[in-house]
Amino acid sequence: MPLRRANNIFLSNSFFIFIARFFPMLANLLVTIWYSRHLPQHTFGNYQYFWIQLNIMYPLLCFGIHALIITYSKTMLANILSRIRRGYYLLFLLWMLSLSAVFAYMQYDAGSVPFLISFLFILSFAVNTIIESVLIVFRRYNVLMVTGLLYALAYCAIHRYALGNGFSIRAIFSMLLIAGLLRTFVHCLAVIKEVQKDTDGYEVEDVDVPGVRSLWLHLGIYDISQMLFSWIDKFVISLVLSASLSAIYYNGAQNIPFLPMLLSAAGSAVLLQLAGNMQQYGETRHTILLVNQMGRVLSCIVFPVFCFLYFFRNELIVNLLSEKYIPAIPIFAISVLALPVKAYSFTSVLQRMHKGGIINAGALADLVLACALMYPLYLWLGLPGVALSFVISTYLQAAFYLYYTGRLLGISPLRLIPLGNWLAKLIVFATVFIAIHYIGSIYFTGRFTLILGAIAVMVTAAISLGIELYWHRRHGAASKTKFKEYR
């Protein structure tokens, strides 16, 4: 496979995986903005409590299965599944049912959502997460995009109906459960249909069962630790402070929509490509070229978004969430400082090399360090200090992963990232957005300044992506020649 074609496949896979997950994330963003503006802080904090606990618990149900699936090709996945005894499937099902019951009891005890609704909600949520990974391996992006769009429309309609007809948390999640079950049912039918197409069976391959089992355990621990890292601060704040303060912190420190999904899509695309082409090229050189390309492409989107969110933070919070969330602005300003390192998937190569131990060591150290810094920094800076603890640990974790990836590949860690490309982009983007914000704050209202900044994000991202694609077309042949020389 020519290198240029490999680049195109990477971009294509990243795009389709991202779009497949885009619509539900957009719906969640719209509802968050909508409810922040129309609900009292106390009520909004109680509503978010269900989602916070869901995001803490569902990775335990999946335990890395969805991440493991993405690691392998369709044929290898079939070989692995055929070697798992039925007893283990039953044990995993029992595991999911038990944890679903724990989650349901927590909601029942809080008096917000009935036991059965909570039980079925988290169970279907986790099952759908696993099935989506199977559909990605099958490259059934059309199914994921259609169901994602329909679910997003239903999500918005349900929340709008609840807000206008006597707001009830129980009613919201009852209706969302029906929509989620229908979505999971359609995904199951798509998987069955795809399996039935393979009438000749699959090619038998050797499977390193202990290696796969070890990777699964490591990925399960890593996925849980990463989700804890994203939600543990919000969970702790919701337990020890009032619902109003919890709502303020949630809106200030919430994950930036789409960027984690974009990173996940790019990381999945890298794994799919390495799984399909690892025997065709010298893998080290192929890996270096691929991860550098990923870093350059992702930075075209992440860096403009970072500059926009940081320099336009006042306008963003006031105009989208209303003035009652002005105390969330300093929390938001610190939280977005972690965004630049999101322009890279630091664990994709380690996952491909089955180095789950290293991945988990970095993830657990990241979580422990953030939690250790949380209280001292809270005493020093208040709620912004809690956000700062997670920013510090994020950068240290990125350095840890780069060091060990470079060490395993026998290269300098700096060769794994397009550092010069990143620095140039950050300088240019920061200059552009500082200038636009300065002009907007002088001549326009806050809302129009925000619109101007949003337009600038789209324009700068499009121009930057265009330049990157032009560079690949112009220098693709040279890269391919160097690739052959390396081999």
From TrEMBL:
- Listed transmembrane segments: 12-36, 56-75, 87-106, 112-131, 143-163, 169-192, 231-250, 256-275, 296-313, 325-345, 357-375, 381-403, 423-444, 450-471
> Membrane topology for this entry?
Multi-pass membrane protein
What is its subcellular localisation?
Answer: Cell membrane
Keyword annotations from UniProtKB, A to Z: Cell membrane, Membrane, Transmembrane, Transmembrane helix
Report whether Chaperone shows up as a keyword of the record.
no
| KW Zinc-finger (keyword) present | no
Q: Which residues form a coiled coil?
A: none
Name of the protein described by the UniProt record: Polysaccharide biosynthesis protein C-terminal domain-containing protein
